[in-house]
């Protein structure tokens, strides 16, 4: 029996952590001082601005991710590689699988923080 076409996806993301994030440290903020002082609303506002820059063509997704994402995937332009169902937090997984290749998500909330996701395959 053939496997469904949607077994795996590949995606990149930009993560902005905030005071409600489960882990309040990142490669940019090892002590978590900035993250702990950032509200969810402020994190989402920064992410919305990044999304606007990307969608308007003023910046590339990979460039914004490399400079601003709180995830260690920043060094790969936000690339998370290929993953299947059950490997990511549920809201992140659901949002990624719902995107078409080349599409960028709206803001997605997880226990890690707020994200925008670019489905790449």
TrEMBL record:
<comment type="function">
    <text>Prolyl cis/trans isomerase with specificity for phospho-Ser-Pro bonds.</text>
</comment>
<dbReference type="InterPro" id="IPR000297">
    <property type="entry name" value="PPIase_PpiC"/>
</dbReference>
<dbReference type="Pfam" id="PF00639">
    <property type="entry name" value="Rotamase"/>
</dbReference>
<protein>
    <recommendedName>
        <fullName>Peptidyl-prolyl cis-trans isomerase</fullName>
        <ecNumber>5.2.1.8</ecNumber>
    </recommendedName>
</protein>
<feature type="domain" description="PpiC">
    <location>
        <begin position="6"/>
        <end position="121"/>
    </location>
</feature>
<keyword id="KW-0413">Isomerase</keyword>
<dbReference type="InterPro" id="IPR051370">
    <property type="entry name" value="PPIase_Pin1"/>
</dbReference>
<dbReference type="GO" id="GO:0005634">
    <property type="term" value="C:nucleus"/>
</dbReference>
<comment type="similarity">
    <text>Belongs to the PpiC/parvulin rotamase family.</text>
</comment>
<dbReference type="GO" id="GO:0003755">
    <property type="term" value="F:peptidyl-prolyl cis-trans isomerase activity"/>
</dbReference>
<keyword id="KW-0697">Rotamase</keyword>
<dbReference type="InterPro" id="IPR046357">
    <property type="entry name" value="PPIase_dom_sf"/>
</dbReference>
<dbReference type="GO" id="GO:0005829">
    <property type="term" value="C:cytosol"/>
</dbReference>
């Amino acid at each position: 029996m053939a496997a469904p076409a949607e077994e795996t996806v590949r995606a990149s993301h930009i993560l902005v952590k905030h005071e409600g994030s489960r882990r309040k440290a990142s490669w940019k903020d090892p002590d978590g001082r900035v993250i702990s002082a950032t509200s969810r609303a402020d994190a989402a506002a920064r992410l919305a601005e990044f999304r606007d820059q990307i969608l308007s063509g003023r910046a590339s997704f990979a460039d914004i991710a490399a400079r601003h994402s709180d995830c260690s995937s920043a060094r790969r332009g936000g690339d998370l590689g290929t993953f299947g169902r059950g490997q990511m937090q549920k809201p992140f997984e659901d949002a990624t699988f719902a995107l078409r290749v080349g599409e960028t998500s709206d803001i997605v909330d997880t226990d890690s923080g707020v994200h925008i996701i670019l489905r790449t395959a």
